[in-house]
Design brief:
Layout lengths: L6 H13 L7 E6 L25 E3 L12 E3 L2 E5 L4 E4 L4 E10 L5 E13 L6 E4 L2 E4 L3
Antiparallel strand pairs: 1-2, 1-6, 3-4, 4-9, 5-8, 6-7
Length: 141
């Protein structure tokens, strides 16, 4: 499934990519438990955040140091930055997860979302885990 950057996020993403401005916000990476297909018209309210026991949103800190975002690199005309800490959740109660979405932490504006295509059932009795390695990649338009 394709990653969708909703209309509400296109300008904030471009500002952050082009200006490295002092107004950069942390990003909240969240899992969603509703079976929805990401769309350009989405807002943060389009998704129902996961709530299995042990769940919490994962903060992507808006810096370029240590365990956060590295300085982006360019290879084969693609700029890439991979967050240096893997987001991992361990379920202690059952829940099916359908994807993830990102929200700018201060403004609450949706930043991006992705459906897994099919639900991923997490079984609490098994302490099932789900991990995401956040990566931002920019290709030629």
């Amino acid at each position: 499934m394709a990653i969708v950057i909703p209309d509400a996020a296109k300008i904030p993403w471009m500002k952050r990519m082009l200006y490295d401005n002092a107004g950069s916000e942390n990003i909240s990476l969240r899992l969603f438990k509703t079976n929805v297909t990401p769309a350009d018209s989405d807002t943060a309210g389009s998704y129902t955040v996961a709530d299995f026991t042990g769940y919490s949103n994962f903060t992507l800190t808006s810096t370029q140091s240590g365990s956060t975002w590295p300085v982006p690199t360019v290879s084969s005309n693609k700029g890439t930055a991979t967050y240096q800490t893997t987001a991992t959740w361990t379920a202690t109660t059952d829940q099916t997860i359908y994807g993830w979405y990102m929200v700018f932490a201060t403004s609450g504006t949706i930043a991006a979302s992705q459906s897994f295509g099919a639900g991923k059932p997490l079984v609490g009795a098994n302490s099932d885990q789900l991990s995401i390695i956040p990566r931002l990649q920019l290709d030629d338009f």
